[in-house]
Design a protein that fits this description.
By secondary structure, the chain is α/β, with parallel strands linked by helices. The protein has one domain: phage-related protein like fold, CATH 3.90.1690. The chain is 27% helix and 29% strand. It is built from seven helices and 17 strands. Strand 11, helix 6 and strand 12 form a beta-alpha-beta unit. Helix 1 packs parallel to helix 4. The radius of gyration is 25 Å and the shape is globular.
Amino acid sequence: MIIYSKSSGLADSAIGKLETPIKMVIEHESDMQTKKGGICDWLFNVERSGKFGETIVGQNEFDVFRAAPEGSGAENDTISETYRKFIEHIQFMKEFTITAEMMEDANYGVAQDAKRRAENFTRAYYKTMHKICEYALASGTLLSGSFAKAKLDLTAPDGLPLFSAYHSYGIGDSKGTQSNYFFGDIFGTGTDGRRASTAVFEEALGELAVKIRNMKDENGEVLGYTADTIILPGNRPLAEAVAKKVCGSEGALGNGYNDINLQYGNWNIVVMPNWQTEDDRVMIMSSEANKNLSGNMFFNRVPLTVSNWVDHHTGNYIWGGRCRFGVGFGTYKHILLAVDSASSVAGASAL
């Protein structure tokens, strides 16, 4: 969505003839980018916001109903707040300039260079949205990070990084810890330089899916969500090829038996181009848990708002864009990170 604000008092005829075409170019490019989607749309819950920031509050659930003797009252149950996560909106801004000479030479149409600038301006907005979401996930082992000069809070509601072996859950007797950060033989590459193994990855994928399914809620009960999304780095082609083979083959790979592939048809694969790693690693996510538990959150406070004005010192035509949004994590229970490593990884537990 783009909000366009026309400046008043524009008397220059060249400006008047450029203003509407460039506005149309920006709006058209916005429609095209919206249809294409991206990391923000695929992996995050995108919601509108009308506040300074958004707070996600976690609560324990009601326990099961209890049997009661005839004539007796019901056992009273209560819900308590277990965690609270605040996501603050950040302001982003950008400008571009069309020179007076360019406007004069455009005559009654839009100069090609001006058109390219308008299209790139809109693409830059959507690129900012998608790249900040990529950055937040890719930096999920950190407590905070910096993106385009903006400081981001990358913690889960318990104050630990999104991916940690020591996450907490529950209150009172149901309190405990659980991990969503693992290391082990994931792709079969290990330390001996062997090529990635489809059989190893198929087995590891099953184990990781069980880890997601066995995540506990604030009552200490197993959540039971099904993992259905594989997220891969953009610079590990061998691992990407193995994941695609395992998820796209009806039969089990890497053995001489006529076994079925239990992973076939169960997964969506998302490659994050800007997630560049020095080792093979993978994120596993449940899209249902992501939605129901407010996992990866993108709050759109102010969509791209475009305005224009004339610099009277130069005669140049300036377009400015402003937006505000917040990115963060409302839980850690919807996603996990696994690193292919034979040796221990700091902050991770053995698979």
